[in-house]
Amino acid sequence: MNEPIKLKAKDYKSSVKPIWCPGCGHFSVLNALTKAFAGLGIDKDDTVLVSGIGCSSRLPAYVDSYGFHGVHGRGLAIAQGLKVARPDLTVIAMGGDGDGFSIGGNHFLHACRRNVNMTYIAMDNEVYGMTKGQASPTTPADWDHSKLTPHGPGVRPFKPAALALASGAPWIARGYSGNPNQMARLIAAAIEHPGFSFVHVLSQCITFCPEQTDWKAVVHEREEEALVDADEAAQLFLHEDGFQTGVLYNAQRATWPPSVPEPQSTDITRGFSV
Amino acid sequence: MKQTELSIAITGAGGAGVISVGELLLQAWAREGGRGLLRKAFGPQIRGGESAALLKLTESERYTAASAYQVLLAFDWNNYTRFGDEIKLAPGVIVFCEDAGDVPESVLAAEPTLVRLPMKQLAEAAHDDGRVNMLALGLLGQLMGLGEGSLVELALQKLAHKPAAYQEAAEACIAAGCAQQLDCSVQVPAPGVPGGWYISGNQAAGLGALEAGIRFVAAYPITPASDVLEWMAGGLEQLGGNLVQAEDELAAINMTIGAAFGGVPSFTATSGPGLALMTESIGLAVASETPITVLNVMRGGPSTGIPTKSEQSDLNIALHGLHGDAPHLVLAPLDIADCVYTSAWAVQLAQHLQTAAIVLSDQFIGQSTAVITEPVRCAPLAPPVSCEGGDNDYLRYRLTDSGVSTMAVPGDPGLRFTADGLEHNEQGTPSARDDDHQQQLAKRARKLNAHDYGDDWARIDGEGSLGLVCFGSASAAVAEAAELLAEQGVACRTVSLRLLAPLQHGSLTAALADCERVLVVEQNHGGQLYRYLRGQMDFTQPLHSYARPGPVPLSGAAIVAALAEVSPA
């Protein structure tokens, strides 16, 4: 083997130009991801980014690795199938809040529960950007900027971290698009975690939710170690303001699939003989 | 020459062991060189509903469902009558039943030879834990001329994991059944060469897939496809593959696509409602040119329909269910043995052409078990050519004459690309341009149309001025109809389609060239195959339809009767 050439963050970017609006938080996620790759010395050929549909789900094409841009809500399913079939690969699924918590919500619950060794980055801007600004499952109940829900969605927003914990995710972190250096550290730690690692990213949508520029004033970094106790994490995720960043929960749990005993025979037709 | 057939129906409550009796009888019969089919019929209940083991002992391996039964063993009358007229009795049927209670009028109408026995009492007298089903096994085994030793050996194999008392009880009850004085007899078909396989269509479809290289399955349980998955779970473990029980069909199909993108041949199995949920992502497999195989074991529809009974009514959704112009493969196995062949062929075609293949099996061939000669295997297609290109110039979706471009998989050095369900250019970069769209649409259509499918597209038999065309499991009933028509002096050509999409227009036209009239036979209400053929081709001869929905299986006699109505000779 040749000595691997140390790549820089920009070396992990592809030549495809992002379709995102200027000021979009997802640029910051792209930078953080490539920075994390550079830090870890990730092999481009052995890495796959998988996504669903939405603004954030465009990200795989902007990275010079293998990628799969699937259909709305199903990125996690594609990614788990890939990782189970090809455990040698580094698999990272990603998408937005509508993709992951609404149309793909069931896959999110079961991916947390199944605990396949992969990473999921949810870029949460509390809005459907690609379809021009409708309420998502994380939109505040009184957000009245959409013609579709002129009085606000009127529904309590999801708490993604609480959902992840309740569904069995062993590793939960939160990042913020205004702090790409911290986010790069979180993504690197997520990739290194042996199991399903969930990175919830507050990624602002400057176009449809300009009020999200105020997030910088309320985001606060967790100073303590990540919680390892699920009860304490439940208390935190149910009662926090949702703006705490850092690794919030870090537990160890057996990954799926488990190893099975060596088969005694590979003759699969034997049982059919009369 | 008319062959001897013997049909035996065993009915009772679900959980009473009716199916076990049928399985053990057929296994013992197979050991003697006998050929036969075991069809299973259930009510919708999980336990305690009606259940029937429907045996047909034959001399050939052309397996249709029996149209009438010469022997009936009813554990009780309540469960028998729940089947209504689904289990028709032949005149003079031999009926085994309890000696107490009234025999239903519908049974008496067949002028049966009644063998009234205190079956429950006899079973309990044989052993404290004695059960009627093992007594029934002995009774019917004796009638079929099977040895007690063979029946006991097979029963004990089946009960190997049960407590010793169960095994003793089974042995005692089988012995009591075999020793019971019977004043009736049946003519059994002549046995063939001992050996062969005892296999269900669902197992056969799973086997074909694994033999063709499938090493990843993701699926969601659904009747009547779950037993494909149950068998494959064990097979994959033997071969070092993986099976994921997904949270729903949406996950199942996408996990299948993900694994296939990773270069691991991948497969899922489902039935109508599940196929409906999968269609969006089957389109993704088509657009991203990711090879997957979807086995759809058809059941009565629409909606939840009749989950436990057979129908060929998912042809429309399999052919036309994808949005956009999404050319893909649709195949249908013609019988239980052919499930091995067609399933393997579908996997190979999907891999070779980098597209989605939908395989239309059904509950009849899927959940029936038959004794068959070890099936013919599908010859492997040429291995894919290796990828060309290097860093930044690999064209995953390169426009080629054949329409097939090379498929790199993650881990291949320097061939990185992003697969996409968005329209894309040759490199895979999303594109909404007119030229990219035209070119990629044409490429995906071309690769299916340009492929040489050889002679496997249909099974063609006979010569005659009447053409009978069908697909999938209707094949056996059509062959039976052709035989009945031959007795009437009507010569037939039968064409059983194994490849439904892309339709082999030229070959089908040629196969029917000498036919002055054609009857299209299928087990559904809407005439889905008939309408598909009408829409796709110009027929020079009159084309007629015989479309009969489930749950009653298609039969040769019904096809002949229908022909007399729609196209009198």
TrEMBL record, chain A:
Record Pfam families: TPP_enzyme_C
Superkingdom of the source species: Bacteria
Listed SUPFAM superfamilies: Thiamin diphosphate-binding fold (THDP-binding)
InterPro entries per UniProt: 2-oxoacid:Fd_oxidoreductase (IPR051457), THDP-binding (IPR029061), TPP_enzyme_TPP-bd (IPR011766)
Listed GO biological process terms: cellular respiration; small molecule metabolic process
Keyword Oxidoreductase: yes
Keyword Coiled coil listed: no
Key words of the record: Oxidoreductase
Gene Ontology MF terms in the entry: oxidoreductase activity, acting on the aldehyde or oxo group of donors, iron-sulfur protein as acceptor; thiamine pyrophosphate binding
Transmembrane segments: none
Domain Thiamine pyrophosphate enzyme TPP-binding: from-to ranges: 53-201
PANTHER family, per the entry: 2-OXOGLUTARATE OXIDOREDUCTASE SUBUNIT KORB, 2-OXOGLUTARATE OXIDOREDUCTASE SUBUNIT KORB-RELATED
Name assigned to this protein: 2-oxoglutarate synthase
Automatic annotation (TrEMBL), chain B:
Top-rank lineage group of the source organism: Bacteria
Domain annotation Transketolase C-terminal: ranges: 466-524
Residue ranges constituting the Pyruvate/ketoisovalerate oxidoreductase catalytic domain according to the UniProt record: 14-172
InterPro entries, sorted: 2-oxoacid/accept_OxRdtase_asu, Pyruvate:ferred/Flavod_OxRd, Pyrv/ketoisovalerate_OxRed_cat, Pyrv_Fd/Flavodoxin_OxRdtase_N, Pyrv_flavodox_OxRed_cen, THDP-binding, Transketo_C/PFOR_II, Transketolase_C
Keyword Magnesium set for record: no
A Pfam family annotated for this UniProt entry: POR
GO biological process: response to oxidative stress
GO-annotated molecular function: oxidoreductase activity, acting on the aldehyde or oxo group of donors
Keyword Oxidoreductase: yes
Domain Pyruvate flavodoxin/ferredoxin oxidoreductase pyrimidine binding: 208-433
Keywords: Oxidoreductase, Thiamine pyrophosphate
SUPFAM superfamilies given in the database record: Pyruvate-ferredoxin oxidoreductase, PFOR, domain III, Thiamin diphosphate-binding fold (THDP-binding), TK C-terminal domain-like
NCBIfam families documented for this protein: OAFO_sf
This protein's name: 2-oxoacid:acceptor oxidoreductase subunit alpha
Higher taxonomy: Bacteria, Pseudomonadati, Pseudomonadota, Gammaproteobacteria, Cellvibrionales
